[in-house]
Amino acid sequence: MFKFASCVLLLSALAPAADLAGTWQFEQAGRGGGPARVTTFVFKVDGAKFTGTYATPSQAYSIVNGVVAGNQITFQTTDDYAIPPRITNYQGTLEGEQLSLAVVRPAQANSPEAAPPPSMTAIAMRSASPEQAALDEAIAAAAQAGRGGRGGGGRGGPPAPMVLKRVGTGTVFHPTPELTRTHLPFPPFKMIPPNGLAKTPPMGWNSWNKFAGRVDDKSVREMADAIASSGMRDAGYIYVNIDDTWEQGRTVSGAWVPGRDKDGNILSNDKFPDMKALADYVHSKGLKLGIYSGPGRKTCAGYEATYGHEEQDAKTWAAWGIDYLKYDWCSASSVYDGAEMQPAYQKMALALRSTGRDIIFSLCQYGWLNVGEWGAAAGGNLWRTTGDISDNWQSMSRIGFDQQVGREAVAGPGHWNDPDMLEIGNGGMTATEYRTHMALWSILAAPLLAGHDIRTMPDYIADILLNKEVISIDQDPAGIQGTRVKQIGPAGYTLEVWKKPLAKGVAVGLFNRSLDTARITVKWSDVGITAENPKVRDLWNHRDITNAATEYSVNVPSHGVVMLRVE
Ligand code: GLA
After folding, report:
1. Residue range 91-107: mean pLDDT, rounded
2. Could you tell me if the CB of 120 is within 6 A of ligand 1?
3. Which of 264, 415, 420, 561 is 20 to 30 A away from residue 153, measured at CA?
4. Residue range 208-232: average pLDDT?
5. d(CA 24, CA 121)
6. Residue range 516-530: average pLDDT?
7. Which among 387, 287, 276 is positioned nearest to 321, based on CA atoms?
């Protein structure tokens, strides 16, 4: 029996190998009227082993460790945008001219502590709006490469198989124009000096969290008006940043249209008829204007991005009067290897500098490849550290409490970790939770980019965002990112003490992530205060605290914070 089984295995391992060789495709209808999305697998077989290429419309990956056993195949794809490189496991069943393939997810893929991929939250936010549906390419690439997303059944469910058809016998991959790399090799990456901007973490507003694809000229002007009239401008919220979907490159129904004029100049779409006039208006309010693009061919929402036009786009933005650029990786994996990420960002930093205009440079690549170690050298004033935030306690607290610790050494004046924009005022958290969001971001010395509709801001949200005592912690001139000094309780439900050394004194955050009110005590010696009887100020209640000579104990509500300045 044993012999028979080994014989069958041996024969089957040898026999069908030749059947796999060739080019296979899986086709899905394009979303929102866009073109069909074709996923291609090219297999090069050598006996019972194979290699090859896997390509989505926006990204190609190497296939490694392929093995054929009977009509079953297994293989891995790799991508090098993570340390260590991300590996995705596939298994498949070959039946004649049909191949069913599924991603095999490791058990920990659903761990709540795993960093969400860049587009996960964007999918949830945008699934209802057709003009937003075109994150598709980047999402599909990320999801099918095992970085999460909804591909292969999404989180939670078993991966859905793809059924591929053989379209040819060729075993060499021929990239589509989207995947063709046309750039010359980069010069060696070298540290560039600071641009002198963002001495304290940038403050302002960004369109994405509330408006996504609905941002337009009118809403940006109205937001500038509201920032000025609400007191936000005078509290320091200066940058008015337009995120994705201002560009030409696709229509709201998803059809592809040219994103540039005949001379290669990037075009804004109908929502933004005159960017220069908009910048003039925003400047007239005493504010600055930010814009968004990325090093790839397409933005995350599928619009025109900057690949191959870095200097030209930088000049265009400078001529419009742009003061801030968020540069989002998105589909850049289709044209750059992981090793090219640093010089690709640096290329834009240098292009911005050569315009002679002061433009803050914000890197958005979700914290990949230890960006904190090279973001400043690449010319960045700030860099995202995680996937996208969403307007709920789990997302905010996971990013803020769990994914920032250990990054503090790389932050400082001119170069900041960016745990993503604020969700305060968007409705998904309580006032208590939004206070925690504001306090934590301030202790983290994070950029404070509001993301709500300022035109209709209720007073209790204004009280949170305009709390000057808390803002002064974020904007402290020493520019030191705070750290956790104590954490007790079960994971995700802890009581935490944080400190942020200030130019004068220390900010202390007493956070309660548990489900009940809890008493939290801090000893001044634990947060680096040696003075006897220090001056203690409660920054949310705006009152001085007495009788706290060596320590302070206080009841903190569930999901709440008590924030102190101790001198
Ligand atoms: C990515 C970024 C978000 C936002 C969207 C726009 O998901 O992380 O902050 O800019 O793209 O498409």
Report:
1. 90
2. no
3. 420
4. 98
5. 31
6. 97
7. 276
How far apart, in Å, are the Cα atoms of 307 and each of 51, 178, 180, 321, 334? 29, 11, 11, 21, 11
In the reported structure, the alpha carbon of residue 328 is separated from the centroid of ligand 1 by a whole-number distance in angstroms of 7
Q: Does the beta carbon of 328 lie inside 6 Å of ligand 1? A: yes
Place 56 in a pLDDT band, splitting at 50, 70 and 90: confident
Q: Which residue is closest in CA terms to ligand 1's atom 9?
A: 388
**208 C-beta closer than 6 A to ligand 1:** yes
Query: DSSP for 492-532?
Result: TS-EEEEEEE-SSSEEEEEEE-SSS-EEEEEEGGGGT--SS
Q: Rounded distance, CA 427 to CA 452, Å? A: 9
Q: Are 440 and 401 in contact (CB under 8 A)?
A: yes
Residue of 136, 216, 388, 476 marked catalytic? 388
Q: Answer whether 224's CB lies under 8 Å from 441's CB.
A: no
Contact indicator for 88, 77 with CB cutoff of 8 Å: yes
Catalytic residue among 216, 244, 328, 476: 328
Our answer on whether the CB atom of 540 is closer than 6 Å to any ligand 1 atom is no
CA 560 to chain centre: 26
Distance 134 CA to ligand 1 centre (A): 12
The pair of three-digit structure tokens given for residue 303, joined into one six-digit string: 């619009």
Does residue 328 carry a catalytic annotation?
yes
Report the nearest atom of ligand 1 relative to the CA of 299. Answer: 12
24 Cβ contact list (under 8 Å, min separation 6)? 40, 41, 42, 43, 99, 164, 165, 166, 167
